[in-house]
């Protein structure tokens, strides 16, 4: 009887140990399975975010042109693009700032030749959207190379331009606007990188306040283009 009890006790222990091992294996499989599922979900979420972010900031819709710099004129210019992205322009550049009225494109193009971004919008754009544009213009990129103004007859509610590049937008809050500014402000196509968009010779008036300046007489000097102290060519990268 004693041997039988001992044998039964050993068999019972073996069963308990075997059952415990099965439970441990199930727990391990469950733990690794859950952990693996969490990892797969996390990878999927991160991947979706990156793909979605890339899609939202994609600049595939940017159109490009090929204009050479230093085409200074005194007359009004008829441009191919609306608004222009390069070409002939006035000898005086526009002071980089935010304007509530249209400016002469001939001055704005000169500013873009110096590396400026020009954000234009339809004059009837709702105030809330204009305010959003002003917020972005005031907080993205280099403020001394940022122009913003209304522009009649735009092909889209908002158009952002740099020298040789342009992007049409329908929503001021579109992330592509910030992506465009970061890529093209003082970008590699800038004909005169580091030239100032301010200074004593910059135009500070809007189109309704002053006409294009006349060609100077022999006694007058043309505007002097100088490097901006805070934006030398080495700082444009």
Task: Explain this structure.
Helix content is 37%, strand content 11%. The chain contains 4 helices and 7 strands; from the N terminus they run αβββαβαβββα. The protein has helices at 2-56, 105-113, 127-139, 175-184, and strands at residues 63-64, 72-73, 89-90, 117-121, 146-150, 158-162, 165-169. The strands form 2 sheets. Strands 1-7-6-4-5 form a 5-stranded mixed sheet. A two-stranded parallel sheet has the order 2-3. The N and C termini lie far apart (92 Å). Mean pLDDT is 86; it is low at 230-237.
Helix-strand blueprint:
Layout: H1 2-56, E1 63-64, E2 72-73, E3 89-90, H2 105-113, E4 117-121, H3 127-139, E5 146-150, E6 158-162, E7 165-169, H4 175-184
Parallel strand pairs: 2-3, 4-5
Antiparallel strand pairs: 1-7, 4-6, 6-7
Our measurement of the CA-to-CA distance between the termini, rounded to an integer number of angstroms, reads 92 Å
Shape: rod-shaped
Ranges where pLDDT stays below 50 over 5 or more residues in a row are: 230-237
Strand order of the largest sheet: 1-7-6-4-5
Give the fraction of residues assigned to helices: 25-40%
State the order of secondary-structure elements, H for helix, E for strand: HEEEHEHEEEH
Rg (C-alpha, Å): 32 Å
Mean pLDDT: 86
Strand content: 5-15%
Structural class: alpha/beta
